[in-house]
Amino acid sequence: MAFLELRGLNKIYGKNHVLQDINISIPEGKLISFLGPSGCGKSTLLRCIAGLETVSDGKIYLDNKDLTDVPIQKRDVGMVFQNYSLFPNLTVFDNIAFGLKIRKEAKEVIARDVNEMLDLVGLTHKKDRFPAFLSGGEQQRVALARALIMKPKVLLLDEPLSALDAQLRKNLQNEIRRIQRQLRITTLFVTHDQSEAMAISDIIYLFNIGKIESSGSPIEIYMSPKTEFAARFIGNYNLLTSEIFSELTGCRLEAAYLAFRPEVVKLSEPEFGDDSYFFSAAVKEVNIHGNFIRYVLLAGKAEFSMDILSDLGDPLLIGETRQFAIRKDCVLTIHES
Ligand code: ADP
Ligand code: MG
C-alpha cells in the first residue's frame, strides 16, 4: 500500500456527484498537485482527506492506517487555505504556537519549535507582529508554519498562492518547494493554474468535473496529453480536427484531433526538409508577451496560435501571409474527444 491511498472515493451533495470514484496512490515525501478548473472538486477532495468533510463512499489510508472515520484532530494532517485564516488577535509567534499550546506542550518545547519554524519560513524578525501588519505572502508563511509545527504526515495546501500577485507567487512557489524538500513532507497542492502545477510538482493529477483525467510528471503531462481536455488545459495545445488538419497540410491522419503547441510552429526556412509539414497562413492577431510573441494564424478553416521568441527578428504584421512549418514529430494524435 502506498503512503497515502485513496480508494474508490465518492462524494455526493444532493444530486451533485462531486467526486466520482477517485483512486490515487501517493508515495511518501513527494509533492503532488491536484490541478483542474474551478468547481471540479479539488477542495472537496482535500477536505475529505483532512476530515473536514465525510466521504459518501470509499476509503482513505495514511501510513497503513484507515483514516476514513478518524476525527480531524487525530488524522496527522495539516492544512493551509487560500485566505490564510490566521487568528487576528494573536501575534505571529502565538499563531504558530497555537496547536502546541492546545496540546499543552511545555513552554520551552513551544519556544524551541516555534523559533525553528520562524527560521524555516524566514519570519524570525516579525514574530511579534499581528497578522494585519503582514503582507499576504508573510501571512501565508505564518499559516504554513502553523500547519508544519504539528509535524503532520501530510500537508494539504488549497490554492495557497491564489490571492498573491504574480512575483510574490513565484517566490512562494519556490519557498514551498524548498521547505517541502527540506522536511521531505508528503504534500498535496491544489491549484487551477497549470504553470504553477508544472513548476512545483513531482506528480500532477489533472481533474475534470469530479474525475481524474490524467496523471504523470509535469513533463509527461505537458509533452504527451492523452485527451482533448488535457491538451487544452495544459500547454495551450492547438487542436485541429483531422479534416481541417488535412486541408492545412495536405496530410490526412487518423485521429479525433491533431494537437501541437504554439512554440512548435515556425516560420519556414529553406533548409527545412520532408520531416516537416508546410503551409501558408495569414497573421490574424499579434500579442506581445514580453519574452515571446503569440500570433494567431489563419489558413482556411484552421485557426491556431504560434509563439516566437521576441529576439528572433522583426514581429510579423497583422494581415501578412507567410510560409510556416511544423515538424511532423511535434504533432500528437488525440483519439479521445
Ligand atoms: P474546486 O475546489 O475544484 O473549485 P469544489 O470542491 O469547491 O471545487 O466544488 C466542487 C463542486 O461541489 C461544486 O459544484 C460545488 O458547488 C460543490 N460543493 C462544494 N461544497 C459543497 C457543499 N458544502 N454543499 C454542496 N455542494 C458543494
Ligand atoms: Mg477550491
Could you please describe the fold and organization of this structure?
The chain is an alpha+beta fold. It folds into two domains: 4-232, Rossmann fold (3-Layer(aba) Sandwich), CATH 3.40.50.300; 237-334, OB fold (Dihydrolipoamide Acetyltransferase, E2P). Helix content is 27%, strand content 33%. It has helices at 42-50, 92-102, 107-120, 136-148, 166-183, 194-200, 218-223, 228-233, 242-249; strands spanning 4-13, 16-26, 31-35, 57-62, 65-66, 77-80, 154-158, 186-191, 203-208, 211-216, 238-241, 257-260, 265-267, 276-288, 292-299, 302-309, 321-327, 332-334. The chain has nine helices and 18 strands. A six-stranded mixed β-sheet has the order 6-7-8-3-9-10, sandwiched between helices. Strands 13-17-14-15-16 form a five-stranded antiparallel β-sheet.
